[in-house]
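Tokens as discussed.
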């Protein structure tokens, strides 16, 4: 059964994309993809997984799509054209030279992340269509009721239909403008997996691993795009620390306290190689630079021996590429490690008026920690209380309560 589930996980997005390309209807493609998987669940446990499972699913789904269209008189006019295409495909080899379905997921990536869709809808549609999560699972990821998420997904599909958003890869002239949106969707999914917005767990490993899986697909489809390599490298280098980030009770373990022997060295090696690719052959991109920073952390024996001057220098580059207050916050934390807490706090105070950092949990925690290190205990306690008010998940709240208690007892 695990073998069957693994096939479904790998093939679903590929199958859906191919059907969308063939029939031009996302709803129809989803329905017949589900029908094909249901048929496989009936036949494969008895007959075994076929040598070319993707081709089997494609043939089954295509037949079911034609049957549905035949029963629907509204589609009668276009059925003849679709039938000709289906017959031609049935007599042609169902797989490419490597025994796999033609991979059209790249078109679906760009459709789901089209700038005409609201930002909140892009990630939801990507999780639903490319990651294969159910609507309730997507709702959980975005912390909204299932009914709300269902309406959001329906709205996104309607927008694609009404705006006639094409199921295609952008041309070379469009790619630089469109690719960042696709990368941002995958990065946002990973970020939620890395530190859950709410709930009983610090990490949502299922989401983090789905984001990595999507990044791997994108890397295979766009091997020449250095920022795709940078994104995948960043995700792998950060995810390599997953087992050491929580203690026995699920509480957060900070970077300086983590058992680095529990870090995944295979992921670190793979991610570091991708950093080299991302930073070679042209100007650096935001994901490549972030991946380089993550690599410096992962390759250090401990916090004290981390190359903090190099980390700060990389943040300087990142700030020139993305002059956002969040990047400035991270740079300030690195400066605190290089030059001391007073220097870092001075930079944080300069950011105090930034609207995006008002009520931003990482900013409040960073400020509280630096005040604590400087012995300004009453201010640190107030900062920890402010961070507690906006903390997302329960492990973070437990951690902050402990730090607050330590300050109050000092």
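Sequence:
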């Amino acid at each position: 059964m695990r073998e069957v589930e693994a096939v479904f996980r790998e093939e679903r997005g590929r199958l859906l994309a191919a059907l969308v390309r063939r029939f031009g209807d996302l709803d129809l493609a989803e329905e017949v993809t589900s029908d094909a998987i249901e048929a496989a669940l009936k036949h494969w446990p008895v007959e075994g997984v076929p040598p070319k499972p993707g081709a089997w699913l494609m043939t089954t789904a295509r037949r079911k799509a034609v049957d549905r269209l035949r029963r629907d008189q509204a589609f009668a006019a276009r059925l003849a054209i679709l039938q000709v295409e289906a017959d031609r495909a049935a007599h042609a080899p169902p797989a490419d030279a490597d025994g796999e379905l033609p991979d059209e997921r790249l078109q679906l990536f760009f459709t789901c992340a089209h700038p005409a869709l609201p930002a909140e809808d892009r990630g939801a549609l990507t999780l639903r269509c490319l990651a294969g999560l159910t609507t309730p699972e997507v709702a959980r990821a975005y912390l909204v009721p299932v009914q709300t998420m269902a309406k959001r997904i329906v709205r996104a599909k309607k927008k694609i239909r009404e705006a006639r958003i094409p199921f295609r890869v952008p041309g070379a002239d469009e790619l630089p403008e469109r690719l960042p949106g696709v990368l941002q969707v995958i990065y946002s999914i990973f970020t939620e997996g890395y530190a859950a917005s709410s709930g009983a767990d610090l990490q949502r490993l299922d989401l983090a691993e789905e984001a990595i899986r999507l990044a791997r697909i994108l890397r295979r489809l766009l091997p020449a795009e250095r920022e795709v390599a940078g994104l995948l490298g960043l995700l792998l280098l950060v995810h390599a620390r997953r087992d050491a980030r929580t203690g026995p009770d699920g509480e957060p373990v900070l970077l300086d306290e983590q058992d680095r022997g529990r870090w995944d060295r295979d992921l670190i090696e793979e991610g570091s190689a991708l950093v080299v690719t991302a930073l070679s052959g042209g100007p650096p991109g935001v994901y490549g630079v972030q991946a380089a920073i993550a690599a410096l952390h992962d390759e250090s024996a401990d916090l004290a021996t981390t190359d903090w001057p190099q980390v700060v220098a990389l943040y300087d580059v990142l700030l020139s590429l993305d002059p956002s207050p969040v990047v400035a916050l991270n740079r300030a934390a690195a400066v605190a490690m290089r030059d001391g807490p007073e220097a870092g706090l001075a930079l944080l105070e300069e950011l105090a008026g930034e609207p995006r950092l008002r009520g931003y949990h990482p900013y409040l925690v960073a400020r509280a920690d630096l005040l604590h290190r400087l012995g300004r205990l009453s201010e640190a306690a107030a900062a920890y209380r402010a961070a507690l008010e906006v903390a997302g998940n329960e492990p973070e709240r437990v951690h902050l309560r402990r730090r607050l208690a330590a300050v109050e007892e000092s």
